[in-house]
Design brief:
By secondary structure, the protein is an alpha+beta fold.
């Protein structure tokens, strides 16, 4: 198996599938031209290999500094909705948070608290 090109890695990181099934049921590979166009539509410059490498680096850096994904959509009946994956940026061992849960009805629920990196590297809520 060959290593992914910088453009392929960036496209995957941005959520662009390497292939898809068309309306007739045929599997189609996503071309580099389509990847560049879709990334451009997302505001990401991948016009050259160097630009793709830099854009990937920036996405990774931004991702590592976020505590959680900006938006998480869950069904209330999904038991996994009771847990939220959280990360702390490198070098940060404790942080305050404000969590806002917005229901489809528009009702908001807020919770303030602190999280801390445990000795095993996992993040947990401080009681």
């Amino acid at each position: 198996m060959t290593a992914a090109s910088p453009l392929e890695s960036l496209a995957e990181r941005a959520g662009i599938l390497p292939q898809y099934v068309d309306i007739g049921g045929t599997i189609r590979l996503t071309s580099d031209q389509v990847r560049v166009a879709l990334l451009a539509a997302m505001g990401i410059d991948a016009s050259t290999e160097a630009a793709a490498v830099e854009a990937f680096r920036q996405l990774e850096e931004e991702s590592s500094s976020q505590l959680i994904e900006p938006v998480v959509v869950q069904r209330i009946s999904d038991t996994r909705a009771r847990r939220l994956a959280v990360q702390l940026p490198a070098g940060v061992n404790e942080a305050a948070y404000k969590l806002t849960l917005r229901e489809e009805s528009g009702a908001d629920h807020e919770r303030l608290g602190r999280i801390r990196r445990r000795s095993d590297g996992r993040v947990s809520r401080v009681q």
